[in-house]
Amino acid sequence: MKKKQIIRPPVKKKRKIKWWNVFITAFTIVLLGGFMVWMMVYTYQQEKHENEIEEKYNASLPLSGVALDHKLVCMVNNTYLGVDQIPVIVQSKTYYGCCQKCVQDLNSDETVRFAVDTYSKATVDKALAFRTMNPNKPGTILYFESELNAKLYLKK
Q: Residue 138 contacts by C-beta under 8 Å, 6 or more apart in sequence?
């Protein structure tokens, strides 16, 4: 009699776990995860710091409707800077600029020395105009023919 041949399924060999590969993979995941968390925390702190600086700056600005000292305003950029600017005397009127480029512009370009009254739409000389803060854009300046025009405009 013939022996019956028994067919057995092939035996799968157990794979050996390569612990070094597991360690490297886990270390990489932890390292990348830590880096991502650090980046999120750093970004959050930067934004928080920038917001605090902006809030401090906005709190230090004068109120709208209050007359601003012309020395504290850059008349080229129309911004309130809070410190004395560089005086520029043109045709016996004193204008102020924040840098040498502004000084040059005030000396050479007549259009820079004038602004439009936001209320009456008349052209006003920045050296003689009533200056106040723009309530809609903190740090920017509005020029008016008179304090009355400023009050009427700000009541709107």
A: 57, 58, 61
DSSP state, residue 82: S
From first to last of its 156 residues, what are the pLDDT tens digits of the chain? Answer: 666 777 777 767 667 778 888 899 999 999 999 999 999 999 999 999 999 998 888 787 888 888 899 899 999 999 998 889 999 999 999 999 999 999 999 999 999 999 999 899 999 999 999 999 998 888 899 999 999 999 999 887
> Measuring CA to CA, which residue among 145, 142, 112 is closest to residue 128?
145
Q: Which of 53, 57, 90 is nearest to 75 (CA)?
A: 90
**Spatial separation of the C-alpha atoms in residues 74 and 95, rounded to whole Å:** 8
Task: Name which of 155, 121, 156, 136 is nearest 144 in CA terms.
Answer: 121
Residues 116 and 133: their CA atoms lie apart, in Å, by: 15
Q: How far is CA 75 from the centre of its chain?
A: 21
